Amino acid sequence: MTDLGSLVRETADRLAEQHVGVVVAAIAGESVEIRGAGRTGGKHDGVPDADTVFEIGSVSKVFTALALARLAVAGKADLDEPLAALLPEGTRVPSRDGKEITLRHLATHTSGLPRLPKGMLLRALLRPSTPDPYAGCTAEFLLGTLAATRLGAVPGRRFRYSNLGAGLLGLALARRAGTDYETLITREICEPLGMTDTGLTDQSGRLIQGHDRRRRPVSPWHLADLAGAGGLRSTAADLVAFVRAQLNPDSGELAEAIRLTRETEHRNTPFSWVHLGWMGQRLHASQGGGLQIWHNGMTGGFSSFVGFDPERQAAVIAIGNTQRSMDKPAFELLRRLQEQRGLGDS
Q: What global pTM score does this model have?
């Protein structure tokens, strides 16, 4: 059996072949290993480590969904509450066949909303290398486009991944809580878990240089009021704390909310589904039959992956400062941990 440190180092080295710099973390029971490889790039070049700050992109969505669960548990919001109830009076929210969009729909990508705000898809196709493409997504812009947005499906009927929906959820929850999105996430998630380096702003000055697929430096992304879809920055150390809470949802201040995120699901296929925020899948018996709950993320200069198996207490975190998917090596490491922890016998 290969030891955990060697597995993590092997994956980090493999990822560093196609990424400027990476940090990989793995949890197996009570053991944790974190390894960095490659370079941070930029003015203070060095090997990234557990405290290096990365943009985590769409992994932000699981934080937004957990904030929803926290407010629901506290009685400050309801999963089946209409989105319109949390937005400014007079905001026109699309519906279809008489079915309104609810907070549950936004968190499970079943709202029927398109992937991007109206007009942004065409701009993305015409100018794919535009720096900071979401910077103009203010609340005024987002709410203004809703009236002209048509739903692609009846809310609640089918999965349709939507950055717009996740961003609107973050905006709506912050309004309900009477604060901004970053403060909401800090108060409801980061402070209870001791996560001091996660947020929209880089207070520590440790955000490293991002790079495009050709390893050319690119500017950071700022998602304005669409931040709930992908605006957070974090470290491997903070994400380990976050995932530990996910692996042990029977204790701690966030336990009830974490359980609610997992009790809620929308089935896509017999073997895959979406929870509040998280994607879920059951591997085929030929692959060990294991449970995998996960999300990935990507911005103009960064990529991320977080996946775990609560049944066998195994998890993998991979974050890099290059716009290249980390999914394949990260999933492979997670499967190896699952196998080592007995899933092949289940």
A: 0.95
